[in-house]
Amino acid sequence: MMRLPCSIPVDRDGVDALAVTINGDIMTRGRANLLLLAAGAIWGLGFVAQSSAMRGVEAFMFIGLRFLLAALTVTPLAFREARLATGKLEPKDYLGFIFIGTLLFTGAALQQVGLETTSVTNSGFLTGLYVVMVPFLAVVLFWQWPHPIVWPCALTALAGIYLLSGGNVEGLSVGDWLTIACAAFWALQIIFINRLAVKSGRPIMLSLVQFLVCAALGLIISSGIERSNVSDILSVAPLIIFAGIFSSGIAFTLQAVGQRFTTSAQAAIMLSSEALFAALFGAMLLGETISFRGAIGCALIFTAMIAVELIPALRNRSSMDRASVSP
């Protein structure tokens, strides 16, 4: 685990490549995007576990247990990060972390409840709407304009997700509308991680706090409105463990770390690889086939991820070359 400084300047428009020295190592925007790709891969692998667990445990109990395991997973790393940190967190930092945790919980709850009345295909596509919502909400809320390449890349990734989902979204049900709302809250979570995590310099503590918020809210609500029993929980324990440790504890922490070194709009596009990896893992592990339309969707998502990384870097390199030959 690399030691992260408490304050790192971040290129907000996504034009300049970011390179930060951390304990003798270099964290570039390219490496940060690789962390976000890894998070997308884990989410893609864990999506089936999340939906399958609904057969044995109710939505809020699943959320509570999932994020409780996630909190336990990152607790040692958070304390290590605190020991290595050069400064202390202020109360406003913890309030920001709690706010992000509330956004994460709301999105997770809407998606989990929505899975009861919508298909996995629709849920996967509609959740991917956050790719377009992130740059749009960043402009509306903070007048933060992304690099121009983000807009076509976001639409390209969204089109890829649509084709990968089968290209046939049925009439919108209650579950579909809940999932659309979920996408909005996750877009806000991505935006505020990018704004708050950079200032605090403590992404692991951010992860721990947001997991504890989600676990507490999930278990409290479950105790009031659900009737889960131990035998049902044990029947899906492996799915809960995977979702808690990997899909939540590891993947959301990779997201928190990676987003410190890239923009929120670019992060959303990299995280949209979740749909791509879900299809690939389904083909490799479950013997599922990818249709020709789905293959085109995979290609569009991959193209969007490459373009959003390379085009700003190439433009920056070209600008520096022109500056170096100027009198």
UniProtKB/TrEMBL annotation:
Q: Where is the EamA domain?
A: 32-165, 175-307
Decide whether keyword Lipid biosynthesis is in the record: no
Indicate how the chain sits in the lipid bilayer: Multi-pass membrane protein
The cross-references to InterPro entries, in alphabetical order and at most eight, read:
Diverse_Substrate_Transporter (IPR051258), EamA_dom (IPR000620), EmrE-like (IPR037185)
**Where found?**
Cell membrane
Q: What is its main location?
A: membrane
- Which stretches are annotated as coiled coil? none
Q: Which Pfam families match?
A: EamA
Keyword Transmembrane on this protein? yes
Q: Which UniProt keywords apply?
A: Cell membrane, Membrane, Transmembrane, Transmembrane helix
What superkingdom heads the lineage? Bacteria
Regions that span the bilayer: 34-53, 59-82, 94-113, 125-142, 149-165, 177-197, 204-221, 233-254, 266-286, 292-314
Q: What is this protein called?
A: Drug/metabolite transporter (DMT)-like permease
| Organism of derivation | Phyllobacterium ifriqiyense
